[in-house]
Every structure is written in C-alpha cells, then in structure tokens.
C-alpha cells in the first residue's frame, strides 16, 4: 500500500488567489473535452456561464463522491505545476475537491467555486509520470454544483527540488495525516495571509471537524446518522455545537436539526411545522406557505399502510416536470439518501432507502411554486425542508433553512424580512451569554441550555475596496507618481489580514489581487444587468457564506475639494446589531486617530459616522446596510467601513507615501478588531 500524503484545505470559503505566472515551457492544457479526459456518472455539458476554457465545461450537482471527473496526466515524466479552472456561480460548491495523484501519493485541494471562475488556480507542484493512473480528479462530494472545466500541467526545471511545494497562494493547503516516510512531505505551507489557525477542541484533520464553519460533530450518534443519511448533501455543515434544546440533545446543521430522542435514536426537528419556522420570506426569497389543501390529503400516521401511502403521496406531489421546467423534485427526494451511505457494508434492504428519504424530508406541504422575484426558481415545501430548483443550472437542492433557526436564536445574521415575520417567535433573540443558561427568556424554552451552543473562534472578513477597473480615489504627486485607492486598500487589507491571522483569528479576504470580486461578471443582484452593485454583492456573499463575525471594509476617501482631509469610519444604524456596528466603528476611529498621532501625523478626527449621514435619507452603503430597494442580500454581521485618510488631499496623500503611516493604519485596524472581540464574543 502506498502511504498517502494528504493536503487538506482549511478554509474552503477563501478564494484561492492569483492566476498562475507564465512558465518557460509551454504548458499542457487539458480541457474537459480532451480525448483523455473522462467522467464517471453523468456530468452535464454547458456553456452558459462565461470564463471557461475551450468550448464549454461540465458540471453535476453535489453527490457522495461516487461520481468523478478525471484528467489523466499524458505529458512527459517530470515535475509540474498543476493548476485548475472552473466557472463560478452562486450555486457552486464552496468545497469542490480536486485530488492530484502523483508519484508521492495523493494531494487534495479544496476550492470555492462560487468565486474566481475563469482564471487558473495553482494547486501545487508534483512529480508526474504518464500511463500510471496519475493526474487530476474532481469529485462530486461537495456542498453545491461542481464544475469540471480544464487542468493545466506546467513543467518545472529538470533539477527541481524533490518535494512538492504547495503554492504560497494556495492559502488553504496544509499537510495533514501521516507523511510518507520515503517521500518528504509537502514543504510546510508557505507563510500565508490566511490563518492556519487551529481551533481548540477537535484537530483539523479530524473528519468530524468542519473548517468551513469551525464546528464539529462530537456526538457519536449524530455522526453515525450524518454519515448514513447523506452527509453534507443532506445536512450541510454543522453550525452549532451540541446543546440542550427543549429537553433534547440537539445540533443545528445548515439544512436540518438533529435531536437525540429519549430512546437513543436520532430524529430531525420538523423545521417548517409546529411553529418552528412557518415563514415564507427569507433573505429576499419568497417560498410557498404550507397549503392546508395539500396537508389535508396527507395519509394519517395511524394508517397501517402509512409508509407506502406516504411514499405514494410524495411521488404524486413531487413532480419531475412542472410548467415545462425539469424541476426533478421526485428524483431529488429519492436521491437524498443513497444505499451505499445507509448501508456501507451492503447488508441492508434496498426498499428501506426511500423510507430514509422520507425521514429526512417528511411529506410535501405545498404545490410547486415559482419565486415571484425570480421565475427561474421553483420551490416545493416539505415538512422538514424546502426543495429549490434553479433553472440556471437545472439543478435541485435543499435550501439551507435550519441555519436560520440559529439566526433567530442569536439575532445575528438574521435577515430583516425574517425578523419582521418572527417577532412573536419563542426562539427570537433568546441567546444571551450574560444570562443563566445563556437564555433571555428561559420560561419560553424549558429544558434548554445554550451556554455551549455557539462557542468558537472569531472569523473576520477583510475587504479591500474597489479593484480592477474600479480604481476608487487617486492622487498624482508633483513628481508624477500616482497612488490609486484600489492598490492602497489592497496593501492595507492584506497586512491587516496577515496580522489578524497571526493573532489567531480566522480571516477571509474578499480579494487578494487587483481585480473586482465578482470576477465572472455575474448578475448577482438579479436586476438584469452587471454593475458595481454585483461586485459589492459578491463581497457581502463571501462574508455571509463564511459565517463571518465581523466585516471590515478598507478604503481611503476622495472628494472634489482637495482641502478636505481627515479620518472617518462608517457604520449602519439600520440593523438589529446597530449597537455593535457603532461600537466597532468607534473603536476603529479612535485607534486610527491614535496610531496616526503616534506615527507623527495629526489627522482630523471626523468621528464614527452613520452611512446615512453621507448618503442622506434612508440610504445605506451596500456592504453595511439592510436589504431593500438597492441592497439585494444584506451583510449579516456587524461591519465597519474605514476611510483612514483622504487621497485627494495633498497632505494626507503625502503621509500615505510613507510606510510608517500605512503601517500605523494597519495596526489601528488590528487593534480595533482585538478590542471588539474582547468586548463581544463571536457569532
Ligand atoms: Zn473607496
């Protein structure tokens, strides 16, 4: 048996940075349509999303790893830089997993395919030999649509070092598992702007620990159930620790909530029934309400033939086609739990598997319904989840609804439309770490103890404003030198991210190169056009998807009046967590003024200010404000936007030419983040 060196991604939510540099040799590029490339299972060909290599790409919805796309290595034996590309989109997997099979074993790289489409991403350097099963494999075990486009092998010099070296840009790569004693393990990942920060508790190579959300499945029976009922595909990632809720041991996942029953079995909470979450508008989407006419037709649970009748009911109410759209609801239902997952030893009755799908979903409680805001989205409501058909990818998946029960409990990441419907919920705003059992109203939730429910390490998203075509403000000095805001933002943001990582925070960066963040130019706001709003939405989506606790956007100011100078930090007052926004903005403001002064520059302290004070009326900065006419999906965490100095003012701009001033600004932001988390715990 060949010992295997595994390289595991830590933070799949992070965009794997910059395009690969040109190499001396002409690289071997293998498209998905190359004769040697092959797939196991059905991978649909498409050319709808731009950014692909050749004449299209192939994709499939998330599976259990039994379907793979392979690009075998066909070049001459040698050491190669291996890079991959995909087309990005909001329904893509954030944990698409490539496996490089090379002479030293296997290396795994996890990438976020929601970002960074249409560019090459370097996985690392590996020794490869043709005709020996070596090359790159992409698996369908993921949390969203997986895209197979192309792979590039770029040969390195013949005397290249013997150990594979993960790219310093491939921030997520880290050696784990048992190193191969005969082959040196991959060199320790180069210093990275993103933390390889070990959380307390489970180690990062524990399969029960999920770096994406930084929670682990520690209860053995939950872990067994997770594996046997479809894993990530069915449940999504854990978003809580194990805790007591209404008398039962409970763990919240993105799609479902597991509870340990008194008899030792695991059951799922009826998320959409029984007053838990009877809502229809969440985060800008409109779902069908439970339809009493449909519910009236449910077979009675007391019926001796309930099981068969229930499955017949699902078949009847979960069409494959609806109004000419291939919604595939029944197939998605049946594919929820696969036989191999339920019975890994192959010793179970195949007929039981559809019953397991019933266990996960319950019965349909609505008819298929299109989203009034997006005719390409069709929903089918079940007792324990909502199926979502997306006509853009022709794929059907479960929505991440259980995550919102956590939002209700914590009032963090709570979309304002959901809040408006949940005012009388017994769950709303219960979590309070300062109270006994961490509950605000324990009488409403008897048998509950939230003290350990959400404890984990803080995550900060650092956003470098502008990028690519959007240069922001600028200044041209008399010697002809020019400072562009986008460059300065990036320089400061990268240093802040590195400093925070060193201090032990998990850090997400919205961009690490000079480019926009909506790199595949998608209409993310659904308004029929691609504008700066989509680029801002991409930044918000990254922060939201990473479960960010604090969002910091870094800018430098610019106005037409060159006399205007000084320091501002902005926040939004129109949020449920406005007090935190204000506190953080004040901390950042105070630290900026102080650090600049310590560095010998006396700025004008213009204070922590609301975004409304700049924009007037009820308008908010896209990154900071609540959703509404201009903001499609709001940021779901406390946030601040810093304008440390004015680039349009000669005095401020001149100060910014000096490293010690830039470093003072970097340090001020780091200080502010630390101060914030010394006051508030994450989540
Ligand atoms: Zn700016």
Describe this protein's structure.
By secondary structure, the protein is α+β, with helices and mostly antiparallel strands. The protein has 15 helices and 34 strands. The strands form ten sheets. It has a six-stranded mixed beta sheet with strand order 30-27-31-34-32-33, sandwiched between helices. Strands 3-6-11-8-9 form a five-stranded antiparallel beta sheet, with no helix packed on it. It has a four-stranded antiparallel beta sheet with strand order 2-13-7-10, with no helix packed on it. Helix 12 runs antiparallel to helix 15 (659-679). Residues 1-24 and 158-205 have low confidence and may be disordered. The structure holds zinc ion.
List the ligand species: zinc ion
Structural class computed from helices and strand pairing: alpha+beta
First-to-last CA distance: 44 Å
- Helix share, percent: 10-25%
Q: In percent, how much strand structure appears in the residues? A: 15-25%
Which stretches are low in confidence, meaning pLDDT under 50 for 5 or more residues running?
Answer: 1-24, 158-205
Rg of Cα set = 26 Å
Total number of helices: 15
Described by strand count, sense and barrel closure, the largest sheet is: 6 strands, mixed
Query: What do the pLDDT scores average to?
Result: 84
Secondary-structure blueprint:
Elements: E1 6-9, E2 28-31, E3 38-39, E4 44-46, E5 57-60, E6 68-72, E7 78-85, E8 96-102, E9 105-111, E10 121-128, E11 135-139, E12 146-148, E13 150-155, E14 173-176, E15 209-210, E16 215-216, H1 220-228, H2 231-235, E17 243-245, E18 248-252, E19 257-260, E20 266-268, E21 281-282, E22 285-286, H3 292-296, H4 306-317, H5 329-334, H6 339-342, H7 352-361, E23 369-371, E24 374-381, E25 386-390, E26 395-398, H8 402-410, H9 416-421, E27 459-464, E28 474-476, E29 482-484, H10 485-502, E30 506-509, H11 532-545, E31 550-557, E32 567-571, H12 578-598, E33 605-610, H13 611-615, E34 639-646, H14 650-655, H15 659-679
Parallel strand pairs: 27-30, 27-31, 31-34, 32-33
Antiparallel strand pairs: 1-14, 2-13, 3-6, 4-5, 5-12, 6-11, 7-10, 7-13, 8-9, 8-11, 15-16, 17-18, 18-19, 19-20, 21-22, 23-24, 24-25, 25-26, 28-29, 32-34
The chain binds zinc ion.
Residues 465-466, 472, 485, 555 line the site of zinc ion (ZN).
